[in-house]
Design goal:
The chain is an alpha/beta fold. It contains 13 helices and eight strands. The chain starts with a strand and ends with a helix.
Length: about 280
């Protein structure tokens, strides 16, 4: 029998996850989503055929897994309000909220709970996400496997052994889609300045990014990105000149610094939110 999974929050990320679960064959009758606004839940009932509930406590009372999918800024109040129900059930807690540590969530929910933190990214909304997961001391192997199943429904899953490494996951995956969007913007602008129509420049840049990513994925374990780059760089050719210009401009150092400030901000946010 499938575990009962309750999503506290029914926004885009929650619906992406349970939508992916259903597409992967997870029984829809074992999935519940909550929101204080039933008008938000009605379309989900119609589209996915899942259970819905406006009362978090009632939903938690039947849950084997509780996925916390509300904004970090309101998480404290949400957790405290359902603390008694959670303690009565002792479900696995899975959080997709940025910044909030496992210790903080466990404390807000009354303690002595298995907690998994998940750092997904926005491409999860289209089934091509990348998520980093960390489990606290009380999570068993079966619960880790179940969490893997949940998040693989929307993309790649990578486990980390230390919670602090989720800050690195944020830097290279959670926030990183924006880096690629910036690259697409820059290439589109460059194409326009070189005479291309904006729409053509965008389509060419985006398709090239998609193709490059697929080549890296297909060559994983055999051909790394550095070798693929060298394969395109004919001696004294156009690509070599362009790549050398990017290297001389400090592109690698800029990415390193961007990742470092991203990870530092993730750490700061966790400290700020955890003071409640």
């Amino acid at each position: 029998m499938a575990s009962n999974v309750t999503f506290i929050g029914a926004g885009n990320m929650a619906s992406a996850i349970f939508g992916g679960m259903i597409e992967s064959g997870y029984p829809r009758e074992a999935i519940t989503a909550t929101s204080p606004d039933d008008a938000m839940l009605a379309p989900l009932r119609e589209r996915f055929g899942i259970q819905t509930q406006t009362d978090n406590n009632a939903a938690v009372a039947e849950a084997d897994v509780v996925v916390l999918a509300v904004k970090p800024q309101i998480m404290h109040d949400v957790c405290v309000a359902m603390r008694e129900a959670v303690q009565g059930r002792k479900p696995l807690i899975v959080s997709v909220a940025a910044g909030l540590t496992a210790e903080t969530l466990e404390r807000w929910l009354g303690g002595d709970l298995p907690v998994i933190r998940c750092m997904p990214n926005t491409p999860s909304l289209v089934g091509t996400g990348a998520s980093g997961l960390y489990a606290n001391r009380l999570v068993n192997d079966d619960q880790k496997a179940l969490a893997t199943t949940l998040m693989e429904a929307v993309g790649l899953v990578e486990w980390v052994d230390e919670e602090v490494l989720l800050e690195a996951v944020t830097a290279v995956a959670g926030s990183a889609p924006a880096y690629f969007y910036l690259v697409f913007e820059a290439l589109e602008e460059a194409g326009v300045k070189l005479g291309l129509p904006a729409e053509s420049a965008r389509r060419l840049a985006v398709q090239t990014g998609l193709g490059a990513a697929r080549m890296v994925q297909q060559g994983e374990g055999e051909v790394d990105p550095a070798q693929l780059r060298r394969n395109v760089m004919s001696p004294n050719g156009t690509t070599e000149r362009a790549v050398n210009h990017l290297e001389q401009g400090g592109l690698r150092q800029l990415f390193l610094e961007a990742a470092e400030v991203c990870a530092a901000r993730a750490r700061e946010m966790g400290e700020e939110l955890g003071k409640q």
